[in-house]
Design a protein that fits this description.
heterodimer, A: 5 domains, two-stranded antiparallel ribbon, 32 helices, B: alpha/beta, 8-stranded mixed beta sheet
Chain lengths: 816, 449
């Protein structure tokens, strides 16, 4: 921070301007000087709150990269572009420093104080003029105040350390925190949370989380079901190596597989999964995350290594057919035409040169890699280029070369086409063809399309020689940029929350504009801070996840009473309300109950093989989906590639079915176990006496049994904690509500058990068929008679089943 | 109590309801009062990728136009066919690229034949200035009438206005299905019935319709569980102030409403469900007949034909797409709701009036929309709007809708404003919360040809 006296001196130098700005009621810093009497506001904040609308409304129509004032020396970028605030401030800073007769061109031009081809767009003294004036003052004086973004979240109620680590554990690693972890958090507070997060982010499940976040974007899992090896067979002769029985048999034996079909399955999904496995490799090894686009290698399993012909380079530990190691593809004539020069190496550029990625985002002779460029900008530069064309488009005139000459087209194409050119050495199917053989019949000289914007990115141009390996060059241009970092924050935020990142509103006439913009800005400021931390920590993606978890976007659970409607609107995106994906719900169920929601009476000692979970793929076969996975909003990347994040009637019915089936499956089974082996129903101690919840009948002879009631409530409080993560005292109203459910169910059941068997309402003492415990869940072996649970003579088991269905269908179970 | 009064009451009682965030039980009481059991089924049928408007109802033929190029290659102006009063359409192909007769011919005759067969229901609006060349934006603006991102589809707005609480009020099969700002959840129904039974009968262990089967809980207990759960959720909603969290709780609430009614759909699913858009149509019709659904989308891709074979690909994919419309009307007849079916056929945008160097066609903002109104409320057999011989939209007089250089360009927002009125929802709260931005109202119903 600059000293107060220095600040004052600088203000004095532009006192007239500063006074005017102060008159606008919106500038200046706290100081002893009279010119600055309002709250200190950072340049970034001032631009966003005061100047952005002026720039968009008054300037950007002409002063953009493709507008009529593109060569004026002052251009601004579209708000849909990542980092638009910083970029536009920089542009304003450049022009604000230019003066005529001591006054900034930023003020003279739009007021026609000097010639302006766009005419007069501002009146001196108007509100917009004063806002620009305030900006000039700040920029000229390099006056910067610390951002005060913390205020944005004033009024939010945040999760404490224990609840934070529980939520993070469920979402990031698909389990509950261990008792040891909880103990550490209770003692160490948030610093302990951060340490445990670091530890969790070394677990395999965490890598699944990151892969899922990027997998939803890349869509490359499509090839798990769609002939991944066929996509590379033209180049790699051994793509289908498993057709050789001898080789296939060797792998069956080495990996203990059950059939040749499994050899093909692992080959297919290893090839398909390669780009996502690169992401895992980078994260697991704490490498700079930019390696996902710069890595000079790709990932191979023992199965895909054979397809690509690199098995000799790798030494797998053995045992895991989906173990992945990095290697480089051999050099050579990839296009197979015999004419192209040999190269010393294949120019790897992480996922950019992945055959799966390039196949999933193919090109055509007329598309010319533009679709690839669009997703590159989206995935790795944090900008959805199509949103820059949100503004109404004038009907294209019949320009000879509209993508180059028609402003309606160049708004996107000026950015897309150069990057498309960087992909030129990869043909429409994604095969490296440095000789551009595939273009021979497309262009007069067989080279890249002359009528397109020349290959490159931004101001950097790609020369013809480098273009033959254009993707490593492109990746290097982007890897260190704000845009790349922003793209990572966006991807992981969306993976974490299921929410799309906000983009600034564009309709200034909308009455909700300011509130929407404030909400956008709060999020953008948070993400910027996360991005800075990401940069400080050498682009370790775990930093992004940790910072997001610690932010109010993950931890806010409510707002304080009496908060104003404006503040609530600003907090519109704050707080996590994530309907768990099918896979996450599967993991949560498994973590709490120790068994999945799956075909009951399964007959296997290995969860990975023969169980058919309802909410995720079967075993290691990534090409399957659970019975209810797609109904519950999931994806298979084949027919359904977009998740549903909000529940509908059918999804609610899936949850309902799950709650009933799991209560039937888990409650009797848990109560059948020895107390020390239970997960749910601990022995409770009341007045020094130990009770098993299965034996706690709340009433006797129509009168309450106080000890039993206390024991039931203690068990209920414990279940709220275990299932929902709620820490309630036994006299909490929610415990009482659940107790009443238990009590009324017990009363109903015991009354109906007294009826005559031929009475329509009669219920017997036995559990419903299907909820009885007669076999071991995992092995299917019949249990010894004393371990079986068939009868429920006290009707307590069924009362606990009602409680469990209630908890499992609760908002707090289905959402995190 | 209407929705506005309810919000006012909430604010007076300190519930702090913000915008469309509403609290469960009371709101649904209001919704139930608003629901019209005879409200029509509204379906948006979308062709993803940009259907070629000049292969639909803006054909020119294989003549050099005023722009100096040939907009259609495989038919002459004289081959253009007609339906109704003045609807025109490009003829079906009769031979393939090798000069061989196309078999079956029907596969390539879908669009035109549909217009012939259902001419009395059809209003074709050509020459719409779609204002975009972008796929996402095109699907959004053609479905919502609004360019801005996250704008809700008319199908979602309609469902919200008419039947928000139906368990499958808005069934999506893709194209564009944003429902943000409507409090309507979209449902992906799939093409199967096998597992549906277990969802339809959640308390029956063996999940069959028979009453005399084991249950997880007695019906009395099951009802108690649901009541207790709802009471807890109501309290959570009342105590929650953060908009996103409150929203999510409300969505769970509405998703659960009428969940048990799902079983009715089984009675209306045909034995042969079919494939593709036909299966989509069959499931939608069943859900509507069962009283579960109010609006839906049907979609098919493959229209982004930048490469060779564009004309045949366009015809083939359009035939597959409109097969869904035909099946909707077939099932509507069988299930007795043909007079309560409204269908809107849209695409991202049109395609260039000239072939590119790869013999394909690129993106072009002029496009078209077709409405099929089974109610007979909108006079059918008409083609409105206009394009010139380059396929570009022409401005129209805002009253007569006849071409007029001093008139206005027809935008999707005009079509949607009209459709909102024709669907009877223009004054619904959810429609007002998602406003269209038009300077004038174009009355496509009153326009004569």
């Amino acid at each position: 921070m600059m000293s107060r006296s220095k600040k004052g001196l600088r203000f004095a130098a532009v006192s007239t301007v500063a006074l005017l700005a102060a008159g606008a009621g919106s500038s200046g810093c706290n100081s002893d000087e009279s010119v600055a009497t309002v709250e200190c506001e950072s340049i970034r904040s001032y631009y966003a709150n005061q100047v952005h609308a002026v720039i968009v409304n008054r300037c950007s129509a002409c002063h953009n990269g493709q507008g009529v004032a593109a060569n004026s020396g002052f251009t601004v970028v579209n708000p849909a572009e990542a980092g638009f605030i910083e970029k536009n401030i920089e542009s304003l800073r450049n022009v604000a420093s230019l003066e005529a007769d001591g006054e900034s061109l930023l003020l003279l031009k739009p007021t026609e104080g000097m010639p302006h081809e766009g005419g007069k767009v501002l009146e001196v003294g108007s509100d917009d003029y004063k806002r620009l004036l305030g900006m000039v003052v700040r920029l000229k004086n390099e006056q910067e105040c610390e951002p005060n973004d913390a205020d944005v979240f004033t009024g939010t109620v945040l999760l404490g350390p224990e609840a934070t680590i529980r939520k993070a554990a469920i979402i990031l690693v698909g389990r509950l925190p261990t008792e040891t972890e909880l103990e550490r958090v209770r003692e160490g507070g948030f610093p302990a949370v951060e340490t445990i997060l670091d530890e969790m982010m070394t677990e395999e499940k965490f890598f699944d989380f990151v892969k899922s976040a990027y997998g939803d974007m890349f869509q490359t899992d499509f090839y798990i079901r769609n002939d991944a090896q066929g996509r590379i067979a033209d180049v790699y002769a051994n793509a289908e190596w498993y057709m050789n029985d001898t080789e296939a048999k060797a792998m069956v034996e080495r990996y203990g597989l059950s059939s040749y079909e499994e050899v093909e399955m692992f080959t297919t999904q290893s090839i398909a999964r390669e780009p996502l496995e690169l992401i895992e490799w980078v994260v697991k090894n704490d490498l700079p995350f930019s390696e996902i686009i710069t890595a000079n290698y790709m990932m191979f399993s023992p199965f895909s290594a054979k397809s690509y012909g690199v098995a000799d380079q790798l030494e797998f530990e053995g045992g895991d057919p989906m173990e992945f190691l990095p290697a480089q593809l051999p050099s050579g004539d990839y296009y197979g035409d015999g004419d192209t020069p040999d190269y010393e190496y294949f120019p790897h550029a992480g996922v950019l040169t992945s055959p799966m990625f390039l196949s999933r985002w193919p090109s055509t002779p007329t598309n010319r890699n533009r679709a690839r460029a669009r997703v590159f900008i989206d995935f790795f530069m944090g900008t959805d280029i199509l949103k820059t064309a949100e503004q109404p488009l004038d009907q294209p005139q019949d320009a000879q070369n509209p993508t180059r000459d028609n402003p309606s087209c160049t708004v996107c194409h000026a950015k897309v086409d150069p990057i498309a050119g960087a992909f030129q050495a990869w043909d429409d199917d994604g095969i490296w063809d440095p000789g551009l053989t595939y273009l021979e019949n497309e262009t007069p000289d067989g080279g890249w399309y002359a009528e397109m914007f020349p290959p490159g990115i931004g101001d950097a141009r790609l020369d013809n020689q480098t273009a033959k390996q254009g993707l490593p060059w492109l990746a290097a241009q982007v890897a260190g940029t704000d845009g790349f970092r922003t793209s990572v924050v966006y991807a992981l935020y969306e993976g974490l929350t299921g929410r799309e990142v906000l983009t600034p509103p564009t309709d200034f006439n909308d009455e909700g504009y300011q509130a929407q913009f404030d909400s956008f800005l709060a999020q953008a400021n948070t993400f910027r801070a996360v991005s800075e931390k990401f940069k400080e920590n050498d682009l370790n993606a775990k930093t992004v996840v940790k910072e997001l978890v610690m932010s109010p976007y993950f931890r806010a659970v409510n707002a304080v009473e009496g908060i104003s409607p404006d503040d609530l609107t600003r907090l519109g995106e704050v707080g996590l309300a994530k309907l768990l994906t099918p896979e996450q719900l599967h993991d949560k169920i498994l973590a709490i109950f120790g068994v999945p929601w799956a075909d009951s009476q399964a007959n296997s000692s290995d969860l990975g093989n023969d169980i058919n979970p309802y909410l995720k793929y079967r075993g290691q076969d990534l090409g399957t989906t659970g019975t209810f996975q797609l109904f519950y909003g999931g994806v298979d990347f084949n027919n359904v590639s977009a998740r549903i994040h909000d529940p509908n009637g059918l999804m609610a019915a899936v949850a309902e079915r799950m709650a009933n089936e799991m209560s039937c499956l888990a409650v009797p089974a848990d109560l059948a176990r020895a107390p020390e082996s239970r997960r749910l129903f601990d022995i409770v101690t009341i007045d020094g006496q130990e009770y098993d919840p299965v034996n706690l009948a709340p009433e006797s002879g129509g009168l309450a049994v106080p000890g039993a009631v206390a024991g039931i409530k203690q068990t209920i409080a414990d279940l709220h904690n275990k299932v929902l993560g709620e820490q309630l005292s036994v006299d909490d109203p929610e415990v009482e509500r659940t107790y009443q459910l238990f009590l009324e169910t017990w009363r109903e059941g015991t009354t109906k058990m007294e009826l005559e068997p031929d009475d329509a309402d009669f219920v017997g003492s036995a559990l419903p068929d299907g909820c009885r415990v007669t076999r071991d869940y995992w092995t299917g072996q019949e249990l010894d008679e004393e371990l079986q649970v068939i009868d429920d003579e006290n009707y307590t088991i069924r009362s606990w089943m009602a409680v469990m269905t209630y908890l499992l269908s609760d908002y707090r179970f289905l959402y995190e | 109590m209407d929705r506005r009064d309810f919000i006012k009451l909430c604010s007076l009682t300190g519930l702090g309801v913000a915008s469309s965030q509403l609290t469960g039980s009371v709101v649904n009481e209001v919704k139930a009062q608003d629901a019209d059991p005879n409200a029509p089924l509204f379906v948006i049928v979308g062709g993803s990728g940009g259907p070629d408007h000049m292969m639909l109802s803006a054909p020119v033929g294989n003549v050099t136009n005023s722009g100096g190029f040939v907009p259609n290659r495989d038919f002459a102006p004289g081959d253009i066919q007609t339906a109704g009063q003045n609807i025109i359409f490009a003829p079906p192909a009769t031979i393939d690229a090798n000069g061989q007769p196309i078999t079956p011919v029907e596969q390539y005759t879908g669009y035109g034949q549909l217009l012939v067969d259902y001419a009395s229901l059809a209003t074709v609006i050509v020459g719409i200035d779609g204002q975009t060349n972008g796929h996402d934006t095109g699907r959004r603006v053609s479905s919502s009438g609004i360019l801005a991102q996250n704008s809700p589809s008319l199908a979602a707005v309609y469902a919200a206005a008419v039947a928000q609480t139906k368990p499958l009020s808005f069934i999506t099969n893709g194209y564009y299905d944003e429902s943000q700002g409507t409090d309507v959840a979209k449902t992906r129904l799939g093409n199967g019935v096998g597992s549906l039974n277990r969802l339809i009968f959640p308390n029956k262990i063996n999940a069959v319709a028979d009453d005399d089967v084991p249950r997880f809980h007695t019906e009395e207990t099951f009802a108690r569980i649901m009541e207790t759960r709802q009471a807890r959720l109501d309290k959570m909603i009342a105590n929650q102030r953060l908009p996103q969290l409150k929203d999510s709780m409300n969505l769970l609430y509405t998703a659960r409403l009428g969940m048990t009614d799902l079983r009715r759909i089984v009675d209306f699913i045909p034995d042969d469900l079919g494939n593709g858009t036909v299966a989509q149509a069959n499931m939608i019709a069943a859900a509507y007949a069962a009283g579960l659904c109010q609006s839906a989308t049907i979609s098919r891709g493959g229209f982004d034909t930048h490469g060779a074979g564009t004309d045949d690909t366009q015809r083939g994919n359009m035939a597959q797409l409109v097969a869904g419309i035909r099946q909707l009307f077939v099932r509507a007849e069988e299930l007795n709701f043909a007079d309560r079916l409204v269908v809107m056929l849209v695409g991202d945008f049109g395609r260039t009036p000239k072939y590119n160097s790869g013999n394909g066609k690129d993106h072009y903002p002029t496009t078209q929309t077709v409405i099929f109104d089974g109610r007979g409320r909108i006079p059918g057999g008409r083609q409105l709007g206009a394009t010139d011989d380059t396929g570009r939209y022409r401005k129209v007089d805002p009253v007569s809708l006849q071409p007029s250089d001093s008139g206005v360009a027809i935008h999707h927002s005009h079509v949607h404003a009209w459709m909102r009125r024709e669907l009877g929802i223009e004054d619904a709260e959810v429609a007002r919360l998602n406003p269209l931005r038009n300077e004038e109202y174009l009355d496509f119903t009153a326009a004569t040809v």
